[in-house]
Amino acid sequence: xxxxxxxxxxxxxxxxxxxxxxxxxxxxxxxxxxxxxxxxxxxxxxxxxxxxxxxxxxxxxxxxxxxxxxxxxxxxxxxxxxxxxxxxxxxxxxxxxxxxxxxxxxxxxxxxxxxxxxxxxxxxxxxxxxxxxxxxxxxxxxxxxxxxxxxxxxxxxxxxxxxxxxxxxxxxxxxxxxxxxxxxxxxxxxxxxxxxxxxxxxxxxxxxxxxxxxxxxxxxxxxxxxxxxxxxxxxxxxxxxxxxxxxxxxxxxxxxxxxxxxxxxxxxxxxxxxxxxxxxxxxxxxxxxxxxxxxxxxxxxxxxxxxxxxxxxxxxxxxxxxxxxxxxxxxxxxxxxxxxxxxxxxxxxxxxxxxxxxxxxxxxxxxxxx
Length: 370
Hints:
single chain; mainly alpha; abc type-2 transporter like fold; four-stranded mixed sheet
């Protein structure tokens, strides 16, 4: 009996594989999600200043003003454009530059004489991310150059030595690529699994299966193992070739442990897909539920904002999200080289979350077909 059940689950899963590969658009989506999508996300560089467009209007033309404008270096800033004050305003109005630095006449002389003087910095705040971080960078660069030039910067009593662990150069690619991989795993696992069950209903093949010697658990398990295996294979290859070889993101921990954790995570998110499909009953409703579930799960999982920065109540609520657990697992294994003795609570939590959702989906599915 057990062997017959396993054989049934296996062949029903093969049917789902054939359905995916017969749809070229769906196959192309899977390939894109684990190749070009990850590369684009990793190289978008939204979290720090990169090639910001800057212009300098130097009405002072002193050694100090030249020294400051030469300090705006790539890749943090694009090549500096030397313009007049009127040209700087026009370029910003047209959206060609993000920052405009203007030195007043006699800036160096006034500074040496102890007179009050100012450098004007205009920022295009419609580019909010660059404007917010870039203004701080520019201010720090200007102050450092002025202190160095005038020799007024004193020696502090204690010096702060900063060491960045796990990502010494603060390379955004290391973090963005893995977060995008996790996001694509979640999205495709939930959609493919849920859509696989909905298709059975809409095409009328579910009734055909139920009159055969096939039980509801076998139907659900076939969707989970087939779609989970498909996403696992694509994601694991993407981590090796796209993240590891193309983006050259170093991996500190065990790839085998990462694969094991991904299996637990896929069990949880495919169970979410089945659970939502059992509630929805048709594709339009499934689409609405996916928006309501996936967006909060991705935004509050710790991939965009650290969990510690959220309100205390929300920190407790997000612990029931499988994405929150898997991101913590990946950070431990991929970045910090953590072993099983450190990350086993996250794996156990994923197994429990998946088990609860699978049980709920099976209960609803049994009621809907009887």
